[in-house]
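[Q] Does anyone have a clean structure-token version of this?
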Amino acid sequence: MQLKAKTIASFIAALGVLGMTSSLVLADDETRNVHDGRASVYQHLHPDSLEDLSTPASIKAVTMGNVSPSRIWKVLEHGERVECLDCIPGVKRLLWNNNAKTREIAAWWLRRRIFGVFGPGEVYSEVVTTLHQSSDERQRAYAAEALGEFLVHAGVKHVAQALVEDTSPMVRLSAARALTRLNHQGPNGELAAALSDSDTNVRLAALEGALRIHVFTGVDSIVKLIDDPSYEVRRRAARTLGAMRASDAVVGLILLTSPDSEPEASVRAAAVAALGRIADASSRDAVSAALDDPDQYVRDAARIALQRF
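[A] Here you go.
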């Protein structure tokens, strides 16, 4: 017992010495000027681990000539907090670049320039004008993308209008994605209206948006896609209805579970999985019948779905 007591006493004394030493070190550190600069504060860190802020000159440089998308991305990303109103015209040109990632990072950088971008006659109003008036469908599509990336609520009405009125499927596709990016179904439910668009890709984009935005009131429009001529749209519609727990879609989804009414196995599997997520008792027999489907994926989906009832 005496040995144990001495050991404990020695340990406590050692802690005391360490505490005094730490206090001395802290006191010494406190006498240093912590504003000496990054070099002194991070002198023990490798330079590659430190954020290297872009200069206005480097930002201007990447907007001129043939610069790789990865270089543009790096410079603009590191230039997030760089104040450079003179850089805005050059970065604005990147909104019309053929590379999608370049357009994305350009819009991202620009949306942080409130006074230079969103003032009257500046970048924002120019993009809106391009969307509505340009004769070049590619330029209109890029303008819709930019409005989505600007994340300004005022842009909702413009992309919503383009989604239902523009004659180009390319523009309508960009508009559907922009509405999704803006987390909005459109002031008059334009995203739901796009579910009946003549272009398959637009319908698919509208389906994706319906699932991703916070408020979507056009579930009935998704139910109608159960009869869509595109199997990919039918499959995506089934998945979306299942994720939304849309009980009104049960009857239509049941039709999609049978090989007699739905020839595409991937659609049948999606419908079975959706019924499992909705878990309406009236669909249990249809899901059980899918256990005998000729396709293995459908049978697997049925086994999983039955566990949800």
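[Q] Thanks! Anything notable?
[A] Residues 232-309 form a domain with the Leucine-rich Repeat Variant fold (CATH 1.25.10.10).
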